[in-house]
Each structure stands twice: as structure tokens, then as C-alpha cells.
Amino acid sequence: MSKEVKREVKKKRKLNVQKIFNLVSFTFILACCIFYGSRFIKFYIENNKTEEIKTLADNIINNNKNSDNFKSINGSYYFTGNAEKNYLTYSNLIWRIIRINNDESITLIADNSLTALASGENQNFENSYLYKWLNDNDEDYTGILQNSLNNPSQYLTFTNTCKDNIEDTGNISCKETTDEIYITTPSINDYVNTGSSDSFMNNEENFYLINNNSKDKVWYVDNEGKISTSNGTDIIGVKPVITIKSTISEIEGDGTKENPYIIEDERGLFGSYVKLGNDIWRIYQVDGDNIKLSLDSYLKINDQEVTYKYSNNGYYHNDTTRDTLAYYLKNTYLSQLSYNDYVNEVEYSNGIYGSNNDYDYSKTLSQTVPTKVTVLSIGDIFLNPVATNYYTSTGISTESNLVYVMQNDFRLYTKIATSDLKIIPVISIRKDILTKGNGSIDSPYEVQ
Predict the structure, then answer these.
(1) Interior CA angle at 73 toward 72 and 76, to 5°?
(2) Given this model, what pLDDT does residue 377 score?
(3) Are 18 and 136 part of one and the same domain?
(4) Same-domain pairing of 193 and 141
(5) pLDDT one-digit tens code per residue, 346-405
(6) What number of helices (H) and strands (E) belong to the chain?
(7) Which of 46, 86, 134, 326 could form a disulfide with 79, with the two C-beta atoms 3.0–4.6 Å apart?
(8) How far apart, in whole angstroms, are the C-alpha atoms of residue 300 and residue 138?
(9) 45-73 per-position pLDDT tens digit
(10) 53, 70, 87 — which closes off a domain?
(11) Residue 49: predicted pLDDT
(12) pLDDT by residue (tens digit) across 301-312?
């Protein structure tokens, strides 16, 4: 074989080796890309799934999918009957989850009524006093609740509630829903879908529903869980319904009463507990630099509940008139408190409510008196649902000696002002003096 031929053979062998090496290298790199690429995709998907399941809606669905009290109805997941894992805290209030909507927003109802009002004679919800008390529309004394809630723009979205006119509760429909409303009252649909009188919504309170019938009568639930109608002048409970955003995740909790879901990074002041001396109060109104507190129990002296008449003549609060509740609260009760120096004199509502002012709570709240201590008015937020048979500061007319009395079934009655009844006082202090605690029942705010 000539030298030139040998040289050509070696060259070809060298080329073949180079090709083989290149092929092996390419195969190795491709295998690495496939292996590590697939692992990256797998981990990415798993991480995304982990993030998704951290949303409150996903967690609730995942944790309750085998529960007899969790059902899919018309595209939403409803808690039903005596549900035990649908508790959530928001704005220092206890709420119950009604349903998880198909967009994963979560609709809640307050576990107890937060006030008692008349809806307004023959009014639909959007024109009712309930709507105005719940939602802010830039008018005075509207949005009493919305303006009290903790950062609603961060946590809340519009509530989609069925508002059809209903003639027969055995034949309900949902052709009309609320639009761009943050807070509503519950619908007949939600009450029925959660179990009606067997529902967790039924807790022996009277409360309004959002629906009317064709005669403009409004439906409500009575203290036995039955559905009835009213012309809107009955003064009964208002159980707010709100919806939290689909993006909200829980910080802790498992949905039980003992360990409810918690969604807030930071507590608001409203609804917080405050310890002054040996007494526990709750913040029912934040008013600039001042906060108004209602005692979280009946007024007691030496551990004995005190009863007292309101006055000898009507609802008017005058703390300079002897032999009245107003005088007793300022001159006897307040003087014996170790923290009385912290209590400020501010304006409190002291008006009438009824047919004489068309059941307009805003007219009641606009009538005020300056004092250091009084009792709650119609139109205020009531935070103690178990307290009963105690005076408000509201009368039915300027000529009457009848005063409204709060009951634990959230139907207001009137009693003659000379009756001896229990007392839940309210006071005001500056919020900047609270320097200890976090506002929970276990760690109430205190004055250092």
C-alpha cells in the first residue's frame, strides 16, 4: 500500500472517531437537558400546585371534600347543616363560611347579628336602611359597618347574592343578583341551601333576608328558624354577608370554632378587647383619636349585677338630673372606677326611633348629647350577642315614656322607662393610651 493511501485511511479513521465523539457528546448533552429539564418542569409544577393549595378556598375544598356538611350546589360549594369547620375571624368578629363560589371567592355571614333595625316600610334592599347601614355611599351615617371593618379594600370583593322577589319559599329562583355591593344580608337561596332551620345560620335570632315578595314585603328568619315576611317596620337583627377575595390565604387555623381561620396580617381596632382595671370592654366605634367602648358584660358592683330604671320621664339622657340612669352612671358608677381619669366626654347618640322619624336610624344617630358614660343607641354596633334585656338610649317619641330594650334574639321591644333593667355602659378613651396587648380576648389592650 502506498504512503498516500495509508495517509488517506488514517485521515478517514480520524474523521470517524471525531464524528463518533461529537455524536456521543451531543447525545450526552441532550440526555442531560431532557433529564434536568423534566425535573425542572416537575418541580415547577409541584411548586405551583403547592402555592395554589395555599389559597383559603383550595384548602377548604381539600379539607372538606369528604364531609357530609359540604356539598356542591349549582357550581358553588356550600357548608350545610351543623357544619363544624366553617369558622373564620375577620375584623375581630366571628364569621361562618356559607359557600365557596366558582371563582374561589368565599362568601361569609356574621355568626351573630351586629345590630337591630327596621328595613324601611315596603323597601327593596338597595333602598333600605339595612343597605345604608351596611354600605358606605358617602352620606352621613352610612356604611356604619363597612367603615368599621379592617381594610376592606384589601380583603373584600363584591358580594353576589340572589335578590329575586320570592313568593313561595318552596319555589325559589336566582335570576337577579346584587351588583357592586360589598355587604348584603343573606338570601333565601343561601338559607335554604345551607339547611334552612337546620342550618348553622339559625341561632335563635331574628334577622332580615335580602329578598322581598311581589307585595314589597321583606322576608326574614324568626328566632325558631322559620321564614316569614314583614312590611319592614319590625326592628330585628342585621346579619351581614361579605365576600373575601379568591386570592386570600389563611395565616393559621383549621376552621373549627376553637381554631378559626385567620386571614389578617394585622388586627384592626374595631371589635378588639380592652382591659381597664378589672373590666373587659370592646371597641365598637373608632372615631378619630378616640375609641368608644362597650362593657363586655353587665354592669356589676362587687360582682353583683346592677339594675336601674332609665328615668321617670322618657328617653332623654341628662346626667345632671337625679334619680336617672344617666345621673347614676356619671356620679356613682364612673366615680368608683380606678381608670375614670382616662374617660373622655364626647357626643353620644340619644334620639327617637320609629314611625315619627320613618324608622330612619341616621336621624336617631344625629341626635346627640355630650356625656362621659351612657348606653348604646339604635344604629350602633352591638358586640355582645348573649346579653339580653338591657336599656338602649333610644325612645319611640319625645312624648312617650317608652325606651327600646335589646334582647338576645335581636328583636327590639320597648319598656316603660321606670322599669329596673340591666345595664351595659359605654365610654370613650383616647386610642393612643393603649400600649400593651394585641386586642384579642387572650391578650386585650391595656393601659401601661
Answers:
(1) 70
(2) 98
(3) no
(4) yes
(5) 999 999 999 999 999 999 999 999 999 999 999 999 999 999 999 999 999 999 999 999
(6) 7, 29
(7) 86
(8) 40
(9) 555 544 444 689 999 999 998 999 999 99
(10) 53
(11) 43
(12) 988 999 999 999
User: Pick from 217, 238, 77, 90: which is nearest to 154 by CA?
Assistant: 90
Average pLDDT, the chain: 91
User: Is 200 in contact with 108 (CB distance < 8 Å)?
Assistant: no
Please give the average per-residue pLDDT across 291-296, as a whole number: 98
The structure's pTM equals 0.87
For residue 448, the model assigns a pLDDT of 75
Q: How far is CA 62 from CA 57, 210, 235, 300, in A?
A: 9, 31, 41, 47
Asked whether residue 172 falls in the same domain as residue 195, the answer is yes
- For cell 324608622, the residue is 359
CB 448 within 8 A of CB 435: yes
Distance CA(315)–CA(298), nearest Å, equals 20
Residues 47 and 71 in one domain: no
Residue with cell 348629647: 369
Q: How many domains does the chain have?
A: 3
pLDDT of residue 250: 86
Q: How many CB atoms lie within 10 A of CB 203?
A: 19
Q: Kindly state whether residue 284 falls inside one of the protein's structural domains.
A: yes
424 phi and psi angles, rounded to 5 deg: -120, 100
Bigger pLDDT: 36 vs 152: 152
Q: Are residues 195 and 114 in the same domain?
A: yes
pLDDT tens string 415-442: 999 999 999 999 999 999 998 999 999 9
Give me 202's grid cell.
339559625
335 and 191 together in one domain: no
- For residue 156, tell me if it sits in a domain: yes
Q: What angle do CA 114, 138, 360 make, to 5 degrees?
A: 50
pLDDT tens-digit readout, 115-135: 999 999 999 999 999 999 999
Domain hosting residue 29, numbered range: 1-53
Among 12, 27, 53, the domain boundary falls at 53
Nearest CA to 343 out of 233, 218, 232, 433 is that of 433
DSSP of 257-294, one letter per residue?
SSS-EE--SS--STT-EEEETTEEEEEEEEETTEEEEE
Residues 288 and 237 in one domain: no
Contact 104, 55 (CB under 8 A): yes
CA–CA dist 58, 180 (Å, integer): 25
Q: Would you tell me how many other CB atoms lie within 10 Å of the CB of residue 277?
A: 12
215 located within any domain: yes
Q: Is residue 239 part of a domain?
A: yes
Quick one: angle between helices 56-64 and 3-53, nearest 10? 80
State how far the Cα of 204 lies from the Cα of 225, in Å rounded to an integer: 7
